Amino acid sequence: MSKKKLNTKEEVSADINLSPMIDCCFLLLIFFVVNATQITVSKDPSVGMPSAVSCTELKDAKGCIVVNVFADVENMKGNALNKFTATYPAGTYWGVAEAGGKSIGYTSSQTQELTDFISKQKDLFKNQQKIEESKIRLYLRGDQNAPWERSATAIRCAAAAGVNNIVFGTLPSK
Amino acid sequence: MARHKQLQTEEQGDPEMNISSLIDCVFLLLIYFIVATSLVSEKKLDISIPATEGQASSKPPLDPGKISVRGDGTTFWNNDLQVSEPYDASLADAKKTDPAAAAAYSAQRKMEQLVEQLKLLKDQATAIDTNPVVMLEGSPRTAHQRIVDVMAALAEADIHSVGLSTAVEE
């Protein structure tokens, strides 16, 4: 009698084998993690990206030194404006993100500081991450309403720091 | 007595980890990364800017083309041929609500005449087996978007290298 009771108990505890599902999930997870190693740190939401018809995918974000170029405050609105005033002091032309993710703004008179930042970043890429010098690029995220002078100054600063490869960030236009 | 003891050990010898919380975590991460990757839509322009140093001392076989963008966004080819209308940034905001403004905006963004001239230059260069040289001179006041438009036109004409110079005066 007692033997029969034991048998029923064993039959009730039916379990689905979850391990193949976990395997699948981990594979997917790894795939997406690898894909997501794009520029995520320095994408400043205050920059209204310009659009271009003939743009191509940025395949490898390795070695990209990101410099955000801001428009005047009058051209910003809503969320972008709030974020900008909260993060940067007034009159900021260029914004970069340090290794820790902290945003730093540079004003028009701080071109030397911007040059220093770019050369520091370049050395970091070259010595610590062992990226070839030819692959170190300036990723210029210029606001569509920013005066060209600011972008050109950022390019000049990069050239002074020894970075001659420039990549213009754009959005695809429909 | 002996039978009872054996049963107890059998139950203890089957330890099972509760993995449902782990699956929860993995799913959350999975969803986060799926969303994060689909948000990455930023692209780049396939244009390289040659280094200013180490310029060739010999005269290039083909006269370089020169694009100048004025402060209002008007574009000139070799200083004399106007290839685009002025750029009106206010249309960029209006285009979301007004279809007519959207059409005007995309029309002013496309530089068909410039693309034509660039293609001509590219053909000339290919004929004598060299690379076309194009200089881009942007007024300091012109919008960044306008320069990107010019570069898009360059990419459309299959020219992937441009020299930059900043105009001092209008």
Description of the molecule:
The complex is a heterodimer of chains A (174) and B (170). Chain A contains 5 helices and 7 strands. With 174 residues, chain A is of the alpha/beta class. Chain A folds into 2 domains: 2-35, no CATH class; 51-172, no CATH class. In chain A, strands 1-7-6-3-4-5 form a 6-stranded mixed beta sheet, with helices on one face. Chain B has a domain at 65-166. A 5-stranded mixed beta sheet of chain B has the order 4-3-2-5-6, covered by helices on one side. The longest helix of chain B is centred in the first third of the chain and has 20 residues, at 20-39. Chain B is elongated and about 90 Å long. The chains are: A alpha/beta (174), B alpha/beta (170). Chains A and B meet through α2, β1, β2, α5 and β7 of A and α2, β1 and α6 of B.
Distance between the termini of chain B: 105 Å
Q: In terms of structural class, how would the helical and strand content of chain A be classed?
A: alpha/beta
* Count of domains of chain A: 2
Strand order of the largest sheet of chain A: 1-7-6-3-4-5
Q: List how many beta strands of chain A DSSP finds.
A: 7
Adjacency order of strands in the biggest sheet of chain B: 4-3-2-5-6
Would you tell me the overall average pLDDT of chain B? 75
Q: What is the alpha-carbon Rg of chain B in Å? A: 30 Å
Strand content of chain B: 5-15%
Q: Which chain pair shows the most residues in contact?
A: A-B, 53 and 49 residues
Number of E-type strands of chain B: 6
Note the gap between the termini of chain A.
76 Å
Q: What class would the helix/strand composition of chain B place it in? A: alpha/beta
Name the poorly predicted regions of chain B: none
Radius of gyration of chain A: 25 Å
Largest sheet of chain B: 5 strands, mixed
Q: Could you give a short description of this structure?
A:
The complex is a heterodimer of chains A (174) and B (170). Chain A has 5 helices and 7 strands.
